[in-house]
Amino acid sequence: MHVTKRLKPILVISLAKQAHYITLTTPTRRLAEVNNFIEVQNRLKKMATQQLIAENKEGAEIHHGADICKQKCHELLVELNLPKGLLPLNDIAEMGYNSSTGFLWLKQSKRYEHKFQGIGRTVAYETELTAFAENRRMRKVSGVKSQQLLMWVKIAEMSIEEPGKVKFTSVAGLSMSFPVSAFELEEKDHK
Question: What does the pLDDT read at residue 1?
């Protein structure tokens, strides 16, 4: 009689070119390990965002306070030929823009969800948003997600490639275009 030892299945999660091995044991332990992994990854992302902001702060125009940040954000979007309603944030604590690198960051006190009525989509803006901005385009966007059916999709790029259309590209490379008019400021956003 030959007895073999039963091996535990292993879940491999690959992020940022690093493989993380989580041994699957009991469902409770498995959930705890996965949650711990997600928490570590979120901390690493936050540290990377803070490092990116620190690297681009020198030479940047930085503003503090909700009213001035909102005004400067709208002015920048107009300067970049993007619709002002693309970032409908009301509670911005800090806004910075480095014109030499095109790096833009926005910090707000809490996560904000906005439903764009013209297209029927909900977009979530995290507490820290970053992007590299240029004429008619924001690339390497972080902190913006769009709800598609039952899941949230991270937005990596927003651009105007054809007249009258705003194109959103996800981190997976999938894209959708919507009319620019859907991103004009609504009357309640002016307040």
Answer: 47
Q: Quick: pLDDT tens for 24-54.
A: 556 666 667 776 776 777 676 777 777 777 7
79 within 8 A of 157, measured Cβ to Cβ: no
pLDDT tens track for 91-120: 999 999 999 999 999 999 999 999 999 888
Inter-CA distances, 25 with 1, 33, 49, 86, 181, Å = 27, 10, 34, 45, 52
Domains of the chain: 10-57 (no CATH), 61-190 (2.30.240)
